[in-house]
C-alpha cells in the first residue's frame, strides 16, 4: 500500500473515531422533533467545526513539532491516549442527554462540544506532519455524514447504540495514540 493510501486509511479511521461522538449525540438529538432542514443544518455545522478545530490544532502541532521535535511527538501520542480513554470512559456514564436544543446558540454549543477532541487530534497530526487538506477533508466529511446518520437513526430507533459507538471511537483513538508512541521507541 502506498504511503498516501496508508495515510488516507489512517485518517479515515481517525475521522470515524472522532465522528462517533457526533453520531452518538446525534442519535439522542434525533429523538427530538426536528425537521429534515434542521437535521441538514446540524450536520453541516458539525462538519464545519470538524474542519476548523483540527486545522487550528494541526497548525499549532506543526509549530510545536518544528520547535520541540521528539518531545512534541511524545506529547501528540499521549494526547491521543488520554482522549481515547476519556471518550471510552464517558461513553458509559449515564447522562440524560443534551440540555440545549440543537438550534441557534444550542447548535453552536453542540457542534463545539463534539469537535473539541478534533483539536487535540489535529494537534497530534500537525506534530506528525500529516497532509493538512486530506486530514481536514476526511474529518469534515465523515463528521457530517455520521451526524446525519445519527440524527436520522435517532428518529427511527431508541438510543440502543449510542454508548457503544462512543466507546468504539475512544478505543480507536487510544490504539492510534499507542501506535504513535511505539513508533518513537
UniProtKB/TrEMBL annotation:
The residue ranges crossing the membrane are 6-27, 39-64, 70-89, 101-127, 133-154, 166-184
State whether keyword Cell membrane applies.
yes
Q: Which residues form a coiled coil?
A: none
* Lineage top rank: taxon: Bacteria
One GO molecular-function entry: manganese ion transmembrane transporter activity
Q: Which InterPro entries match?
A: Mntp/YtaF, Put_MntP
Tell me what gene encodes this.
mntP
Family of the protein in this entry: Belongs to the MntP (TC 9.B.29) family.
Q: What does this protein do?
A: Probably functions as a manganese efflux pump.
Q: What are its GO cellular component terms?
A: plasma membrane
The record's subcellular locations are: Cell membrane
The protein's name: Putative manganese efflux pump MntP
Q: Which Pfam families match?
A: Mntp
Mainly resides where? membrane
Q: What organism is recorded for this protein?
A: Mangrovibacillus cuniculi
Amino acid at each position: 500500500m502506498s504511503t498516501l493510501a496508508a495515510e488516507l486509511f489512517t485518517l479515515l479511521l481517525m475521522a470515524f473515531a472522532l465522528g462517533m461522538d457526533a453520531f452518538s449525540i446525534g442519535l439522542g438529538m434525533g429523538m427530538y422533533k426536528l425537521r429534515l432542514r434542521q437535521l441538514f443544518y446540524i450536520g453541516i455545522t458539525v462538519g464545519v467545526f470538524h474542519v476548523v478545530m483540527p486545522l487550528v490544532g494541526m497548525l499549532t502541532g506543526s509549530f510545536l513539532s518544528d520547535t520541540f521535535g521528539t518531545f512534541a511527538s511524545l506529547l501528540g501520542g499521549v494526547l491521543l491516549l488520554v482522549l481515547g480513554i476519556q471518550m471510552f470512559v464517558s461513553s458509559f456514564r449515564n447522562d440524560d442527554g443534551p440540555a440545549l436544543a440543537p438550534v441557534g446558540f444550542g447548535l453552536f454549543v453542540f457542534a463545539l462540544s463534539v469537535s473539541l477532541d478534533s483539536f487535540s487530534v489535529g494537534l497530534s497530526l500537525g506534530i506528525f506532519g500529516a497532509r493538512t487538506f486530506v486530514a481536514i477533508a476526511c474529518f469534515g466529511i465523515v463528521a457530517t455524514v455520521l451526524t446525519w446518520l445519527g440524527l436520522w437513526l435517532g428518529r427511527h430507533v431508541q438510543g440502543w447504540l449510542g454508548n457503544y459507538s462512543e466507546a468504539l471511537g475512544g478505543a480507536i483513538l487510544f490504539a492510534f495514540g499507542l501506535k504513535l508512541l511505539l513508533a518513537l521507541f
